[in-house]
Amino acid sequence: MNKKITVIKGDGIGPEIVTEAIKVLDAVAEKFGHSFEYTDILMGGCSIDACGVPLTDEAVATAKAADAVLLGAIGGNTSTSPWYKLAPNLRPEAGLLKIRKELGLFANLRPANLYDELKFACPLRSDIIEGGFDMMIMRELTGGLYFGARKTEVVDGVETAVDTLSYNEDEIRRIAIKGFDIAMKRRKKVTSVDKANVLDSSRLWRKVVNEVAKDYPEVELEHMLVDNCAMQLVRDPKQFDVILTENMFGDILSDEAAMVSGSLGMLASASLNDTKFGLYEPSHGSAPDIAGQDKANPLATILSASMMLRYSFDMDKEADAIDNAVKQVLAEGYRTGDIMSEGMKQVGCKEMGSLVAERV
Ligand code: NAD
Ligand code: IPM
Ligand code: MN
């Protein structure tokens, strides 16, 4: 098969990790007789520097014309980079929000599981993680606080900032349906996470999720408040199958789930709409503290490329080849610094990518 992939290397470690994911995709293409055609576009700080905006309309058009998008990460150090002196709508993150909105990517899937080989990288006690865990965080991605009206103004002589958290029932219903559909292919349990004891948007969330649940009698549904969920993720991560939640809660809980799995450098993601199209990116950021040092863990990006093969291209055995290659490399004891533990062999970003590509 011939597939067109729009590539966004982005900022910080973005170019390093995407290069390794492409190495692995090329190994898949060679082994299985496919051809992947890559077209680069700019997004984030590099686009600000080259074009004055974090994402041009031409770049969006290129992304739309592809079969899928592969993204590294965007952004700089938010305290020191000059990008953060610009107006908010001209900063790197505005490019990411624009592409998610323009492509209608309302469903963000972030799978967090514990590889047996990485149990020493997990900060939780061994009795808590005995037997491993395997959850899918379903994060709503184009609504909520990220896209509500915001302003900063002086009210009665006091500087005041407002962000708006708004959801309508249609936005909730479509992500809930995706969440239940995915649960049907897994262990048939949905934990819907909200703050319904305080927020109107969460009360609507709960009501709509309950309505959708009626169409899925086989799926067990529970509601959990977000503060409790943050605690339960470290108390007993095994209890979760699908976590269904709104944009901001999903952002925070997925970083927590990533660390419980051993490292932010392991958590892949797929951002989907209602077609086969998708954008695939690691859940972590541009890690300015380690950029350009060949230290980044490329596995989250490589596993995101595997999700691209599975969800957008229906290439299940090709995706399995990547997932198995990652497991094999970990079983052989190779580790980047973030997942290093005693007795293991430490490698850099490039070597990790090559090791996976060779095992595909
Ligand atoms: P971050 O995820 O970039 O880094 C947090 C910590 O995790 C750092 O210590 C970093 O070195 C480490 N880390 C992250 N990914 C790693 C990897 N693959 N291998 C090894 N270590 C890794 O979060 P941050 O520092 O809060 O944000 C930095 C910038 O990234 C900000 O500008 C932020 O807006 C942006 N960001 C972008 C995305 C994205 O592009 N999707 C996601 C999150 C943050
Ligand atoms: C993520 C990131 C983004 C988000 C930022 C960079 C806007 O943290 O993809 O998790 O909050 O969605
Ligand atoms: Mn995040």
From TrEMBL:
Main location: cytoplasm
Cofactor note: Binds 1 Mg(2+) or Mn(2+) ion per subunit.
Pfam families per the UniProt record, alphabetical: Iso_dh (PF00180)
Enzyme class: oxidoreductase
PROSITE patterns in alphabetical order: IDH_IMDH
UniProt: Mg(2+) binding residues: D227, D251, D255
Any GO BP: L-leucine biosynthetic process
Pathway: Amino-acid biosynthesis; L-leucine biosynthesis; L-leucine from 3-methyl-2-oxobutanoate: step 3/4
Record: residues binding NAD(+): G285, S286, A287, P288, D289, I290, A291, G292, Q293, D294, K295, A296, N297
Reactions catalysed: (2R,3S)-3-isopropylmalate + NAD(+) = 4-methyl-2-oxopentanoate + CO2 + NADH
Isopropylmalate dehydrogenase-like domain mapped to chain residues: 4-356
Keywords, sorted A to Z: Amino-acid biosynthesis, Branched-chain amino acid biosynthesis, Cytoplasm, Leucine biosynthesis, Magnesium, Manganese, Metal-binding, NAD, Oxidoreductase
UniProt KW Ubl conjugation keyword: no
Cross-referenced InterPro entries: IsoCit/isopropylmalate_DH_CS, IsoPropMal-DH-like_dom, Isopropylmalate_DH
Compartments (UniProt record): Cytoplasm
HAMAP family to which the protein is assigned, alphabetical: LeuB_type1
Assembly and oligomerization: Homodimer.
Sequence similarity: Belongs to the isocitrate and isopropylmalate dehydrogenases family. LeuB type 1 subfamily.
Role of this protein: Catalyzes the oxidation of 3-carboxy-2-hydroxy-4-methylpentanoate (3-isopropylmalate) to 3-carboxy-4-methyl-2-oxopentanoate. The product decarboxylates to 4-methyl-2 oxopentanoate.
Record protein name field: 3-isopropylmalate dehydrogenase
Originating organism: Ruminococcus albus 8
